[in-house]
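Q: How do we represent a protein-ligand complex in a form that can be generated token by token?
A: Start from the inputs.
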Amino acid sequence: MKRKFLILLSTLFAIAAITLVIIQIAQMQASAKMSDNLFNISVNNSIDEVFTQLDQMKVEDYVSQKERYKVLQFRRIDNLNEKMQDLIRNNSELFYDEHRIIFGISTQDSALQLPKANLTDQEEMVLSQYNTLLSARNRLMSKINYSNEQYKKTVNNHSIDPTTLNFPLLDSLIREELIINGVDIEPTIGILETEMDTLYYCSNVNDSTELRNTPYKYTFHANGIVSDENLYLVLSFPSSPIILSSDANKNTVLSIFMIVLISALFVFSIRTLWTQRKLDEMKTDFINNMTHEIKTPIATIGLACEMLQDNTIINDQETRSNFVNIINDENRRMRVLIETILQSSKMANKNFSLSLKEVDINQEVTTALKSFQLMIKNKNGMLETDLQPISGILYADQLHISNMIHNLVDNAIKYSPNEPHIKVTTNQEKEWIVLKVSDNGIGISKENQKHIFEKFYRVHTGDRHDVKGFGIGLNYVYQVVALHKGKIAVESEVGQGSTFIIHLPLA
Ligand code: ADP
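Then emit the structure tokens for the protein with adenosine-5'-diphosphate bound:
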């Protein structure tokens, strides 16, 4: 797939995915707004219903328990006053006669005066009735502070004094109504006087600031009378009101799920496309490298064979053996190469299994190194070994262990552009064989160390095309070590050389 086409495809895909996500979000917002409106309507209806209920109640039903007693006393005083006024109205000649006046017509006046004239029995009785009512009323008045205008207002006008309200009753009325109207979030309820900024009641003191700034603010009224312009019933709900209907809830969850799914699919598809493209590039690289890697030794071998047939060197043993060595070297390289590719693809097969037998690691190292000696000598290099005796038994697949050593040593020489100094050591650490292959080559940066064991990964060498490879050698080594339940690590500094450390478990 062409890079430009892939970018175009990714962009279109991104636009489509983003548009879908935007549409989903817009729909979610619209449905949230609708839910908000629905929520507000439900709250308003609930409060209206609460006020209607208050209207239907008697004042003493919605004032607090403590105040109820006083309200009842006021009612009784009022009753007594009315009765006294009735007596006065029905016996006005007794109460208003200038000569026989007992006291002024005001029933509030408690100064009882003696009659100025003789009274009839009937009049005596009225007067005694009046006196009884009066003393009963005065007794009640002395018990409570009758001059308190608030109570007079409460009793006479049914207007509401915030201090006298039965808050628990009001609170539970509101909560019940909210539930009936489908609002299943617990509100904080308060009675707020805005002029003095006083909260007479607050169901949760932690939310008092929210209550003061809440949009859910209702003028307080009962029995058709608005109590005080500055007195409000206030409600606040935890942050954003939760969607009311379960349908809306389901839709939101579904929308969020779809957004996550679309985003995940988008990322996944784009990643797959780019990986596919990378693999395509790798495949092309692989074929190019492979052709080159095989063409070069074939050409070299062909040339060496031609030279060997040359009559002029037929008796020159040294030159002949040189050419034979070249043929041998190239042949070995091709063998390792093809073996690695073959084994690596075999390992990818699920049914692959190792053929384990007792393997002498030191023997394998010695055999492998023999085939490299000439090559190192030709590069004026040096090969050092330190093979310690191993007491445990290593059960391994000989072919793969041998290929593994070949690959590591081949890399060590390949990536040491100057005179290679290769060191191979083995030793035993408890239940492990430790094999180390070090060189003084170009080294590997920390970033590249993380990737060198990945299939087809090759360190970018810029313009240098002299070191050919496929990027499968180390991946193969990694797989061999893993199949033997071992461990592999690399220690390297750029420009200083590298050491590959392999641990293989002993039986
Ligand atoms: P390649 O065919 O490229 O050698 P490998 O899988 O063997 O593939 O190695 C992967 C990469 O690791 C190489 O491209 C090389 O850059 C780096 N590498 C491997 N061995 C060494 C080493 N001994 N010194 C420096 N770099 C190395």
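Residues 246-324 form one domain. Residues 100-112 have pLDDT under 50 and may be disordered.
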